[in-house]
Design a protein that fits this description.
Bound molecules: zinc ion
Oligomer: single chain
CATH superfamily: Peptide deformylase
Strand content: 25-35%
CATH class: Alpha Beta
Number of helices: 2
Largest sheet: 5 strands, antiparallel
Number of strands: 7
Helix content: 10-25%
CATH architecture: Alpha-Beta Complex
CATH topology: Peptide Deformylase
Distance between the termini: 29 Å
Strand order of the largest sheet: 1-2-3-6-7
Length: 144
Amino acid sequence: MVNIINYPNKNLFKISKKIYKINNKIKNLIFYMSEIMYNLLGIGLSAIQINKKKKIFIIDISKNKNKLKIFINSKILYLSKKKIYFKEGCLSFPGIYKNIKRSIYIKIIFINIKGKFKIYKSKNIFSICIQHEIEHINGKIFLN
Ligand SMILES: [Zn+2]
């Protein structure tokens, strides 16, 4: 059962809501998101892509799909001026790929699954993925 919403569904343009409590409902949602993402061979997925307007996204860029990272209420603290082009796709835009220029380095603040604030620095493909997913939770799409 796959419930991904695809462009031009207008919900992709909605701003997701902050999470205040990481209860079982949220944990189940994250588990469900991970199943969908792995099933579709994606490397990132935001809750809004399964029609849940919540500031959650997950990323796993490992080949074995065993390094799931969960990001809740993420905010960008720093984006490097140094940028790179990368050909991006999106599970909500099947078959569409576009070269996009994004910062190589990023620093974000988020809360983890235990509700703790974390600062996370990343570079290259992981940084690009985070920037792509943060756009999703803020109601933007990668083609704009
Ligand atoms: Zn996407």
